[in-house]
Amino acid sequence: MKPLTAEEKHIIIDKGTEAPFTGKYCNYKEAGTYLCRQCGEPLYRSADKFDSGCGWPSFDDEIAGAVARHPDPDGRRTEIVCARCGGHLGHVFKGERFTPKDTRHCVNSVSVEFEPAAAQTETAIFAGGCFWGVEHLMQQQEGVKTVESGYIGGTVENPTYEQVCAKTTGHAEAVRVEFDPSVVPYEELVKLFFEIHDPTQRDGQGPDLGPQYRSEIFYTTPQQKAVAEKLIAELKTKGYDVATALTPASTFWPAEERHQDYYLRQGTQPYCHRRTKRF
Length: 279
Fold this sequence. Notes:
The chain is of the alpha+beta class. About 20% of the residues lie in helices and about 30% in strands.
């Protein structure tokens, strides 16, 4: 059991009630799980929380087996407690028709604590000309966590910028994108990629010529490959002679520090990358 403050003891042990509209979680909307403040048992999922306007956190369902019900001594209401430790949570009501489940768990904020949902991220790797510009425009996309410039697709380990520019390593300048798929699906990132560079130009982008500036998607899962194939087919039906290659991702070698966040540090805009509507 966790130590409780005097206020927490008053509500959780002595079955008190916090004032309406004062609790921390009354209007809380983050994704995650609500745990018993006293023992840490998971009680409610954020997906089951709704705004009832009553002044206390409201849930129309609980995690199976986590909440026990007991009639109040006066028989007028039904108390809800943590099934593991018996800590008082609040009361449950039926028949109010707030949600299709027709149930409202009216819970004191003091009786629970919140555990945020673990951030889910995926990795995407794109090559579309000079990595400075691709990096800069990918960084503007909501849901993108990090973008790192680097090299991929060649045979030389730990390549330098000078080696890649010599066109003897087989590597392409590329960016590795860490993103939250619940905010921006992979398909949207691929569409962005196809709209911030010219996917019909071979071995170059604008004035930057050479195989290191080729257009290529390095997929990390079969699902990513399928998405990219679908969008390439869509572009071809629109009349684009797509040159973009699809390749399984190999080792990504981060570029030198001077190439990271280049345009952000320079305070300028890309010279050969801009968004053009294609979808």
